[in-house]
């Protein structure tokens, strides 16, 4: 059975996730927001097969290049945000100069598409395009785990007032791509504590489930 650990990183406490296979030999990293020693120690001695990015805001990509250089692992990102990795104006780091230096990274190695199934660490990670917080936002489903990025939080949702964000689009993404998952699916968001799909359908005031 795979295991995972969240690492809240950086000034915005972005959740980076290290997901490790049952044999404890392989791992993937989701949204490495900063280059962090604790995260590096967690993957030391493991084969890091990939870095998966839910989207390319600066607080989710700051540690990409260090991990990629150390472990030689490819980076996956939706093509609508491909050039955000190289552009501080697009990834938001230029806008938030009070909390971060400009963030730049090399371009991703692979593009993500809605419905794509990635075979990594002996597991299947299904890609669901969930725009609204940003145009290229995706969520990853693996068994009963949902890595939701900044789409869905515990009793909240990602902000939609940044460039490329759209409130109605985000609500549609959540209702059409996330709420159909089983109620006991564990939601692992980009910020804050975990929740479940069932709890959010019942309690989320921003995107109530349609009857």
From TrEMBL:
Extract the CDD domains matched here.
Answer: metallo-hydrolase-like_MBL-fold
Region described as Disordered: 189-211
What are the names of the required cofactors?
Zn(2+)
> Transmembrane segments in this chain: where?
none
Task: Give the catalysed reaction(s), semicolon-separated.
Answer: 3',5'-cyclic CMP + H2O = CMP + H(+); 3',5'-cyclic UMP + H2O = UMP + H(+)
Q: Key word RNA-binding present in the record? A: no
Extract the SMART domains matched here. Lactamase_B (SM00849)
Q: Which residues form the Metallo-beta-lactamase domain?
A: 13-191
An example Gene Ontology molecular-function term: hydrolase activity
Q: Which UniProt keywords apply?
A: Hydrolase, Metal-binding, Zinc
Q: What InterPro entries does the database record attribute to this sequence?
A: MBL_Glyoxalase_II, Metallo-B-lactamas, RibonucZ/Hydroxyglut_hydro
Q: Describe its function.
A: Counteracts the endogenous Pycsar antiviral defense system. Phosphodiesterase that enables metal-dependent hydrolysis of host cyclic nucleotide Pycsar defense signals such as cCMP and cUMP.
Question: Which protein is depicted?
Answer: MBL fold metallo-hydrolase
């Amino acid at each position: 059975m795979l295991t995972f650990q969240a690492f809240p990183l950086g000034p915005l406490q972005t959740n980076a996730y290290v997901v490790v296979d049952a044999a404890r030999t392989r791992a993937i990293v989701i949204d490495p927001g900063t280059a962090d020693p604790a995260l590096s120690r967690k993957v030391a001695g493991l084969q890091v097969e990939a870095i998966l990015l839910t989207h390319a805001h600066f607080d989710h990509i700051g540690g990409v290049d260090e991990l990629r250089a150390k472990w030689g692992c490819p980076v996956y990102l939706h093509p609508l945000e491909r050039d955000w990795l190289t552009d501080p104006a697009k990834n938001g780091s230029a806008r938030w100069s009070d909390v971060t230096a400009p963030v730049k990274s090399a371009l991703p190695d692979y593009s993500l598409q809605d419905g794509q199934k990635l075979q990594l660490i002996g597991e299947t990670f299904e890609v669901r395009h969930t725009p609204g917080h940003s145009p290229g936002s995706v969520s990853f489903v693996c068994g009963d785990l949902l890595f939701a990025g900044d789409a869905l939080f515990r009793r909240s949702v990602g902000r939609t007032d940044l460039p490329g964000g759209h409130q109605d689009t985000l609500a549609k993404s959540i209702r059409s791509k996330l709420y159909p998952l089983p109620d006991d699916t564990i939601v692992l968001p980009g910020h804050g504590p975990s929740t479940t799909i069932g709890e959010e359908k019942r309690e989320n005031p921003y995107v109530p489930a349609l009857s």
